Each structure stands twice: as C-alpha cells, then as structure tokens.
Amino acid sequence: EAGVTQFPSHSVIEKGQTVTLRCDPISGHDNLYWYRRVMGKEIKFLLHFVKESKQDESGMPNNRFLAERTGGTYSTLKVQPAELEDSGVYFCASSQFSGRRDTQYFGPGTRLTVL
Amino acid sequence: AQSVAQPEDQVNVAEGNPLTVKCTYSVSGNPYLFWYVQYPNRGLQFLLKYITGDNLVKGSYGFEAEFNKSQTSFHLKKPSALVSDSALYFCAALNKLIFGAGTRLAVHP
Q1: Are B34 and B49 in contact (CB under 8 A)?
Q2: Which residues in chain A are contacts of B90 at CB distance < 8 A?
Q3: Contact criterion met (CB < 8 Å) for B44 and A48
Q4: CATH superfamily membership of A5-114
C-alpha cells in the first residue's frame, strides 16, 4: 500500500511569489491534515479535511494560505503571496477514521524556502 | 495554553545502553498521546500511541512508553539502544493536534 506522498520535496521561491504544495493521502483515508514545522520548532497544525470539507482550519496563519481538497482525494495548499516567515517544512498526514484516536500517517514533507 | 513539551533538544546514548526520551503534556481532558520518529529526508513514522487502558504501551522497533497521569508524562524508552535508532523523535497529543518540538537522539557506537 502506498503511503502519503507530497510534491514537490523542495521548493525555493522569492518573496511575493506563489507556491502550491500537493498531498496525496493513503487511498481510502477520508481525513487529511496539513502541518508546518518552522525553524526547528514544534510541528504546528494548519487544517483538517474530512473528505472535501474543512473540518478545522483554526491553525491557518492568515488568508495568504488556501487549502483545497476537491473530490476528497488529493489536497493542495497554496501560499500567495509568499513571505519570508512562510519558510519551513510542510507535512501532510492522513487517517482512515474520524476521531482523533486514529493514527495519522505522514508524508515526507515539502521543504519551502522563501528568499 | 495547551502544550506538549520535550525538555531535551538532544539525548546522547551509548549503543547497548537504555534510552529515555522525555515528554510531558498539558492538555484538557484525556490526552491521546503519540510518538513519531523522523529519519533524515523521511516523513514522520508512527511508533506507538496511548489512548486508554494499560499505561505501558509497546510499539515498533522495541520502543515502549509509559503513560503517567499524575506526572502528566509519556516518556519513550528502549532497553538497549542501537546506532540505527539515531533520529528525531516527536511526541504529540493528537486529539488536540499538538506536537512537541522534537528531541534528537544520537546513539554512539
């Protein structure tokens, strides 16, 4: 069974540009999460999809971030325009069942560098 | 504010010695606690979790963790460390979607 995949693995962009990150969850997993780790600090929650609906987007830092999950399969996270403080590693995770007791399986992350 | 703390940035252990990576939590209600490990250029891999029941949880690669409600801790342990255990370890209270900052484990031959 394929795991969670993320694309690209690395992205280097200039301040003000737009970047779109993609996450493909494990097949059949309705729950999809986005997280971010900045500057070696703790991993912070961004948002949670259940199928195509945003269950919780309380962690989204501001309106420069837009997440979508059309059709309830893969998800994209767009940053527009990117700022220096957006640099970090963006992780995606998926889980099969609702409820937070289910194990989340993580992708390898996308390392975003904003210059 | 709710939080998960990993008080040590790095833990150094000699191969063959027991290892402990510490985690404490401050969350409302009953926590669902998880440990993940991240190897270089890889995603986070699930090690073990505590939801309810037996306070001693056994996980992958010989790791175990003990949930201690009175001390609000969930320390990760292994009786005999391997060099291949060297990695970054994260503790999380996933029902609150909160992670610790990570602890780098270095096991020396």
Answers
A1: yes
A2: 43
A3: no
A4: Immunoglobulins (2.60.40.10)
